[in-house]
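call fold(seq) -> tokens
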Amino acid sequence: MTEQLRRVTRALISVSDKTGVVDFARALAGYGIELVSTGGTRKTLSDAGLNVLDVSDLTGFPEMMDGRVKTLHPAVHGGLLAMRGNAAHTDAMRAHNIRPIDLLVVNLYPFEATTARGADFATCIENIDIGGPAMIRAAAKNHDDVAVVVEASDYAAVLAELAQHAGATTLALRRRLAAKAYARTAAYDAAISNWFANALADIAPDYRAFGGRLIEKLRYGENPHQAAAFYRTPDPRFGVSTARQAQGKQLSYNNINDTDAAYECVAEFDPARTPACAIIKHANPCGVAEGENLLDAYRKALACDPVSAFGGVVALNRTLDAAAARAITEIFTEVIIAPDATPEAIAIVGAKKNLRLLLAGGLPDPRAAGLTAKTVAGGLLVQSRDSAVVDDMELKPVTKRAPTNAELRDLRFAFRVAKHVKSNTIVYAKDLATVGIGAGQMSRVDAARIAARKAMDAAEAAGLKEPATKGSVVASDAFFPFADGLLVAIEAGATAVIQPGGSMRDDRAFGRSDDHGIAMVVTGTRHFRH
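ret:
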């Protein structure tokens, strides 16, 4: 690719985010570049002492209709789209007194920020930019001759080229800026279309698009031979995408995935009610607990599976304090995420230079609506977020014996956790802590056996005479199609069961529970997680 230098003689600047625009425009003027602008941007530049033409000086028309119509004019789009080396184009420009625009600087109306703050419908509509995307796309199409800048972070790159090439830009820069411009308008339109679909309660619009802003390029994906990057969507939930990394080395793809799973899990536990901790390994909980304080919750969660917790992610639903920080840093941990942390806790974690500490600023709402998406070959699977919360469910007793209050408390706890374990899932819990977790198995009976086996291993490691599944409760993410998985749980010592129900063989599961004096409740809500 040759440099194909294009001298900038005229720049059109129209920005909603005016960060750095005065200094940028002043630098442009230093190269003898004529400045053209609109509305508030023109006032900002003019107030700074710069000589700026109004766009109406090019079009011969004033801004009208509350600024909706100002740049949608041949004098603007002709100046952006005219191919400088095409004689017919240059003849048309001459015949119609259209002057070339060599640099377009536009960032769009803040639609994403407007919807994020919950503005009303009319306000959101008024923040849909029309002229901006039209100009951006025009300039990007004609990048052989025109440079287009869509955010302030690229001002420095443009000025560097102008300095290096005596007021001209290279084709390489123009192409890079054009690619970014199209990606920006695509993400912008995606945000608008998804907002419209949500406003219309349209769960399956004919077209679905998603867009995001790069947070960072990652070293690699799930494996070293895979490339990866991390993007923030226009309406992020509190979590890893909103977090400030207080310390530690760069997050990996797997760190981000596991941290997201951990924080979504711990967010099921209302911090106003009780402190909670979730420890995650390979996107599955290996220990979850509520406690008197974060230290207590962490120790109870760790006791469930201390082997798997090594090298895991720890998520907390309250501000990380010094006592919890000391305990967590006693073993190798990849990431700690919490809404916030005390200065003392940050200092304690800081002694482990590779340990990442993320402060998310808040907890995601487990009841909030939203979408999740995953790729399949040639397509996207899109669904509403699993926002079902056990506290909102009617737990229907289906056995002769109803659960005790203590069992009912633990049943709710176990079902909260089961929602965040890969299916098929079995979770044993006792005293608001997991004591055995079976995740991602092809059969429910295997999940029950693995969870019970893990509880036995944890008991042996702790020097206990019997596993904590004795006297525990058990949660299943879906119904028991056969009684075998249920019988494994009963044999492990479970005294109460929570499950969705809905199988044609439900009566068998209910009957077997009665045979063993087990209490069972059904929720009517399944929590498959693949």
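The longest helix spans residues 171-199.
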